[in-house]
Design brief:
The complex is a heterodimer of chains A (159) and B (769).
Chain A: E1 2-9, E2 12-19, H1 24-31, E3 50-53, E4 56-59, E5 72-74, H2 87-94, H3 104-117, H4 123-129, H5 141-152, H6 154-157
Parallel strand pairs in A: 1-5
Antiparallel strand pairs in A: 1-2, 3-4, 3-5
Helix pairs in contact in A: 2-5
Chain B: E1 3-6, H1 25-30, E2 45-51, E3 57-63, H2 65-68, E4 73-77, E5 89-92, E6 95-98, H3 99-106, E7 111-112, E8 118-124, H4 127-136, E9 138-143, H5 150-153, E10 180-188, H6 191-197, E11 200-208, E12 220-225, E13 231-235, H7 240-251, E14 258-262, H8 278-288, E15 292-295, H9 298-304, E16 311-319, E17 325-337, H10 344-351, E18 360-368, H11 382-400, H12 404-411, H13 430-438, E19 451-460, E20 465-473, E21 479-483, H14 491-503, E22 510-514, H15 531-558, E23 565-568, E24 571-574, H16 587-593, E25 602-609, E26 615-625, E27 632-642, H17 649-668, E28 699-705, H18 726-738, H19 749-762
Parallel strand pairs in B: 1-28, 2-15, 13-14, 17-18, 21-22, 27-28
Antiparallel strand pairs in B: 2-8, 3-7, 3-9, 4-8, 5-6, 10-18, 11-16, 12-13, 12-15, 16-17, 19-26, 20-21, 20-25, 23-24, 26-27
The chains are: A alpha+beta (159), B alpha+beta (769).
């Protein structure tokens, strides 16, 4: 059964036709072509499909598209501030925190969610915030460094 | 935190050795980078694979008639759509593949040989219809007894996977088929004599489980075959020329008709060097006359791709009281999975490679089992055999009361050492690595309660191989660089840096891409830690060709002989005073005169890269073992490794840290768990537990630089060695933390707890298995 889902995606009101069995991940990737959100496992274990759902990080593969009705969704495509990368994005590039890049969108979202609620997290808090995001390339070091640096840089002083 | 140890005063570099940002960075942090599953073609169908539910079964019949008439089904392929292939081995990374087996791995023929073995593939207008079609395919199986373990599979009464497989490497050849594909042997000196001279001999048996490469991006491909039979393939792979070769062979098509484009690759670690979906997608597309997209789900990745071998290893080492090793012997039995071709050969070659020994004997067995065919995984074979050898070296050091670094320094391979597998090493950095470890803050730091520290060394060969790079000088003086080895760890950045270094331009002026198979000459795959080495060598050669051409153009413009033109500091200049007065020109100036002095300027290099040099590593691990739960936490970790020359040090560190993290998972948690029917019980990231951020400490790195004399900048491959030492280093750390020496991976909490209880019951530090 198809139905129309109305929600806000990256600041735009959207009306999307979705199958009742679609996940939010299907809706984003297949229905509206926002392929920045990745599918690594499809059952909530890898975190590559992390998006902000009303400001909270969730695995889009575990959310039914129907649940997104009326919600405010932010995907990796909606994180940069116009032409300026978010400090987390910039720091991941500068610190070598992205290698193959497949887990990176999910990591960015988890880190942004962390820094939105905590301006100066400890390394332990950073590691726990991204513990749901598997990365097989980096050993997480440079990701943690990047998030730490983003926290102490312009992001902290951003409005 | 990072330090660097350099052996020689080196050439001054301007770009190499700095840390510019990567050209693929912005796309990766904004979600714009296109990975395998992100590509879409208008009108594409969805392809799905029917897989065997049985570990071992004869396929008596496949009936697709009901599925074929389901509305929306556009094509079905089975074994009947692929011609059988004769036995022929071809290289794929550091491994060999046999087309007889490749065709059978892509689609089962006589038998299903593992749970998850593809039986048929369907292309339909939607995923739902494709899945429904799979349910409608009726397969008549005769279920056979199965065998999963290498030692079990070698027994005379074991179920035999391939009725025609006669063990190679044994004289006289056996008359009966068995699961042992091959026996190999490396002998140097006289081990009997060596053991006779030994003051101490330690002999141990080890077991390891298969572990998966664990790339986060599942396999994905889009294939489109045109009406004239030419084909486009978009795929996530470590080697698109290899994909092209395998597909052309399996389908009987001309290589020139298949154009393969490598997408961004979401991790491979060796696992994306073989074909699984690609020939199926092409065959389906040809039949359906439409593009076909196929994406594995995570469960399929676990059940049917990779992993590396589980193994049984026996090691015996004899040493003098002063720690000098006088004999080393090992027997390795590696699971190959359903088809021959485990990495037991490199396993044998690596086993004692870190040491300068006189008497060595290593025997290896390549054993087929009812599991997915193993694929390369980062230094394939090496981590398994070196884990066992390094663990015994650690035990001998302990018995002799020697510092484990001193013990290794006493035996370390160095320039001129003859390796047991044949060659003499050139300049290598093991001694430098051990010295760096000895002087590191980590090695000398105090330990806490329930903590122990371990150290281990590791070796990997590294390879070169066929490589093509094209460097185009654009009209505005910028440069386009085409390479053909997919970028898994920052290759494009490193190649741009090497081009910029050579040409005297800003690194941002060089835009690198990974070209498709029809746009550039042949490239062997990204594997064997070869891409920065080989594509880097070709990039430097291409740049030098461009410089030569720039000189030619200047000589034409200035109307002076070519030998009166020189290239210095990024500019062509008159060679001396009598060459006349001419304004020096950089590449931007040369670009402007290209058209009127002979046409476009392209630097091109098509080579077989020789001179790859091994990289040795030394890892220090601190483990804390919880005596209540048996849980091991790695509290501190340092990777020390010879990079030859680190082109982009941050990405070298990234390789060190990533490899160490994979090794920590291998040591402590990761394993395949099968039920009694040969079905995988943990085909997901919840139960196949890879390290997450909160499991790991910061991983310190020390880059050792002993230049490789056979690379223009001294580069060695660095990608694989970092996964070799962790298992032994952690086992040694766990021993010191818990009092128990383990001989089995993974050292998961229940095993550690049981081991600690047994030691308590025995009242001493008794070894367990």
């Amino acid at each position: 059964m198809n139905s129309v889902i109305r929600c806000e995606i990256n600041g735009e009101e959207r009306e999307v036709l979705a199958d009742g069995r679609d996940t939010l991940l299907d809706l984003l990737r297949d229905r509206i072509g926002l392929t920045g959100t990745k599918e690594g496992c499809g059952n909530g274990n890898c975190g590559t499909c992390t998006v902000l759902f009303d400001g909270e990080p969730v695995n889009a593969c575990l959310v039914l598209a129907g649940e997104a009705s009326g919600a405010r969704i932010t995907t990796i495509e909606g994180i940069a501030h116009g032409n300026v990368l978010d400090a987390v994005q910039q720091a991941l590039i500068t610190h070598g925190g992205t290698q193959c890049g497949f887990c990176t969108p999910g990591i960015v979202i988890s880190a942004v969610a962390l820094l939105d609620r905590k301006r100066a997290p400890t390394d332990d808090e950073i590691r726990h915030a991204i513990a749901g995001n598997l990365c097989r390339c980096t050993g997480y070091d440079k990701i943690v460094e990047a998030i730490r640096s983003a926290a102490s840089s312009s992001r902290a002083s951003a409005p | 935190m990072q330090e660097r140890v350099k052996k020689d005063p080196e050439r001054e570099f301007r770009v190499v050795g700095t840390r510019p940002i990567r050209p693929d960075g912005a796309d990766k942090v904004t979600g714009r980078a296109k990975f395998g599953a992100d590509f879409k073609m208008a009108g594409q169908l969805v392809g799905k694979v029917l897989r065997s539910p049985h570990a071992h079964a004869r396929i008596k019949g496949i009936d697709v008639s009901k599925a074929a008439v389901l509305p929306g089904v556009k094509a079905i392929v089975t074994r009947d759509d692929f011609k059988d292939q004769g036995s022929e081995f071809v290289p794929a990374g550091e491994m060999l593949v046999n087309y007889r087996d490749v065709v059978r791995n892509v689609l089962a023929r006589e038998k299903a040989l593992f749970e998850g073995h593809p039986i048929a593939a369907v292309a339909a207008t939607s995923e739902k219809i494709a899945r429904e079609a799979l349910r409608l395919i009726k397969v008549d199986y005769e279920v056979l007894p199965h065998v999963l373990d290498a030692v079990e599979a070698m027994k005379p009464d074991a179920p035999v996977l391939h009725e025609d497989m006669i063990t190679a490497g044994v004289t006289p050849p056996p008359t009966k088929a068995s699961n042992v594909a091959k026996r190999i042997e490396f002998v140097m000196g006289d081990i009997q004599k060596g053991f006779k001279d030994a003051d101490v001999i330690v002999e141990r048996e080890f077991n390891t489980k298969p572990v998966h490469q664990g790339y986060i991006e599942p396999h994905a491909v889009v294939a489109s075959v045109s009406e004239d039979g030419s084909a486009e393939v978009w795929v996530t792979t470590q080697g698109h020329w290899i994909v092209r070769a395998h597909c052309a062979r399996l389908l009987g098509w001309d290589i020139s008709k298949i154009r393969v484009t490598a997408s961004e690759i979401g991790g491979g670690f060796g696992g994306k060097t073989v074909v699984y979906l690609e020939p199926l997608a092409l065959a389906l597309s040809k039949k359906a006359r439409k593009p076909v997209k196929m994406v594995m789900n995570r469960e399929e990745v676990f059940r049917a791709s990779g992993p590396t071998s589980g193994a049984n290893i026996w090691v015996k080492i004899g040493a003098k009281k002063d720690g000098r090793i006088v004999a080393g012997e090992a027997i390795l039995k590696y699971q190959a999975g359903a088809f021959q071709g485990s990495p037991v050969q490199p396993g044998c070659m690596c086993a004692f490679a870190p040491y300068d020994l006189e008497n060595v004997k290593v025997v290896g067995y390549d054993v087929v089992t009812n599991r997915p065919k193993v694929a390369a995984y980062r230094a394939p074979g090496g981590p398994i055999s070196e884990y066992a050898v390094e663990s015994v070296v650690d035990e001998i050091a302990e018995q002799l009361g020697l510092d484990p670094i001193e013990m290794r320094l006493k035996n370390a391979a160095k320039e001129g050492t003859k390796a047991a597998y044949g060659p003499k090493f050139g300049p290598i950095g093991l001694v430098e690595g051990l010295e760096a470890a000895k002087g590191s803050p980590h090695w000398n730091a105090p330990l806490g309660k329930n903590q122990g520290r371990g150290i281990a060394a590791g070796f990997w060969f590294n390879i070169g191989g066929e490589t093509t790079v094209s460097l185009q000088l654009n009209e505005d003086g910028t440069l386009s660089l085409m390479a053909g080895t997919p970028d898994v760890g920052g290759l494009r950045a490193s190649l741009s840096m090497m081009a910029a270094e050579e040409l005297g331009v800003d690194v941002a002026k060089v835009r690198p891409i990974i070209a498709d198979t029809s746009s550039l000459g042949y490239n062997f795959l990204t594997g064997g830690s070869r891409s920065t080495f080989s594509s880097g060598m070709a990039t430097v050669e291409a740049a030098r060709a461009m410089i030569k051409e720039a000189c030619v153009r200047a000589s034409k413009l200035w109307e002076i002989p070519l030998d009166a033109v020189t290239w210095e500091d990024g500019k062509v200049r008159p060679a001396g005073d009598n060459a006349g007065k001419h304004e020096a020109m950089d590449l931007g100036d040369i670009a402007k005169i290209a058209g009127k002095t002979g046409g476009p300027i392209v630097g091109y290099s098509a080579i077989t890269a020789h001179g790859a040099a091994p990289s040795f590593g030394v890892h220090i691990a601190d483990a804390e073992v919880d005596p209540e739960t048996g849980k091991t936490t790695i509290t501190r970790y340092t990777v020390i490794q010879d990079a030859g020359k680190a082109v982009h040090p941050a990405y070298v560190e990234g390789q060190f840290q990533g490899g160490a993290a994979q090794g920590i998972g291998w040591a402590l948690n990761e394993e395949y768990i099968y039920d009694d029917n040969g079905r995988l019980e943990n085909p997901g990231f919840l139960d196949y537990r890879m390290p997450v951020a909160s499991d790991l400490p910061m991983i310190d790195t020390i880059i050792v630089e002993v230049p490789n004399p056979r690379h223009p900048y001294g580069v060695r491959g660095v990608g694989e060695t970092p996964i070799v030492p962790p298992m032994a280093a952690i086992a040694a750390a766990v021993k010191r933390a818990s009092g128990v020496r383990f001989f089995e991976l993974p050292m998961s909490p229940p095993k550690i707890l049981a081991g600690m209880k047994a030691v308590k019951a025995n009242g001493g530090a008794k070894a367990t298995t």
